[in-house]
Specification:
Elements lengths: L2 H5 L3 H12 L2 H17 L10 H15 L13 H11 L4 H11 L4 H8 L3 H16 L5 E5 L3 H13 L3 E6 L2 H11 L3 E5 L8 H9 L6 E5 L15 E4 L4 H17 L4
Parallel strand pairs: 1-2, 1-3, 3-4, 4-5
Protein name: Response regulatory domain-containing protein
Keywords: Phosphoprotein
InterPro entries: CheY-like_superfamily, PhyR_sigma2, PhyR_sigma4, Sig_resp-reg_PhyR, Sig_transdc_resp-reg_receiver
Length: 264
């Protein structure tokens, strides 16, 4: 099997990680493209003796640590000032959050995460603890949940409330979601893709975003369909079935970028 064939199944999930790390689909996908270009240009330098997924993420982190994509000719002009600001902010995404995303969102062990960011296991564990402490101190938000499966909705609501946030409503249809969003103006939206009336959570979110800006986390059992890099796609995405730690990390990172870019 060729190296490309080995890496292909892991690309959607690298896009997910890159977008969560940068807070932007545009910049996350750009770093993934740069990673693939580096692999194609020098396949002999691809990490050997490790799982292909680990090697892929290791190459990504090398690009992430050394690249300045927003300074490249033509890059900024095609994406606008807001995206440039996101890219510069992304460089400030601290190591604790990288460690948390690698373990909680991407499911790497602390040993593997240490390999990826160049630290030992004890250091990674300490970084994750630091990130969790930061989450505890994070500004509280009003959260709208768009989910038509009652058990999943209750599970998400419990996680959100345990993090100290308020749940404004649980909407099960596109119409409900838009109505509740306009009534309460939440600071975060958690949205399933498929809703009770066969409407789309994506369409519901588009309707909401047409009225006001708010960070959004999508939830789906089929992440590969929304991580192609070929069209406008979610920046933050959780895969069903999810772990509590995954939801916690995604909420924290979405609010991290929202708070960091908010006017003083």
């Amino acid at each position: 099997m060729s190296l490309g064939q080995q890496l292909h199944p892991h690309l959607p999930f690298l896009r997910r990680y890159a977008r969560a790390l940068t807070g932007s689909q545009t910049h996350g996908d750009a770093y993934v493209r740069a990673t693939l270009e580096a692999i194609v240009a020098a396949p002999e330098e691809f990490p050997s003796g490790v799982d292909p997924r680990l090697g892929l993420y290791k190459t990504f982190h090398a690009i992430w640590s050394s690249s300045h994509l927003d300074d490249e000719p033509g890059f900024s002009g095609s994406i606008g000032q807001e995206a440039i600001a996101h890219a510069r902010l992304a460089r400030l995404t601290p190591l604790p959050r990288q460690a948390l995303l690698l373990t909680a969102l991407e499911g790497f062990t602390t040993e593997d995460a240490g390999y990826l960011i160049g630290l030992d296991t004890a250091d990674v564990e300490a970084l994750v603890e630091e990130a969790l402490e930061e989450i505890e101190a994070q500004t509280r938000a009003k959260v709208l949940i768009i989910e038509d499966e009652p058990i999943i909705a209750m599970d998400i609501e419990t996680i959100v409330r345990d993090l100290g946030h308020d749940v404004t409503a649980i909407a099960v249809t596109r119409e409900d979601a838009v109505r509740e969003a306009l009534a309460e103006r939440p600071g975060l939206v958690l949205a399933d893709i498929q809703l009770a009336d066969d409407s789309s959570g994506i369409d519901a979110v588009k309707d909401i975003l047409a009225e006001f800006s708010v960070p959004v986390i999508f939830i789906t059992a089929f992440p590969e369909r929304l991580l192609t890099g070929e069209r406008p796609e979610p920046t933050f995405l959780i895969t069903k079935p999810f772990q509590r730690s995954t939801v916690k990390a995604a909420i924290s990172q979405a609010l991290f970028f929202d708070e960091a870019t908010a006017p003083a």
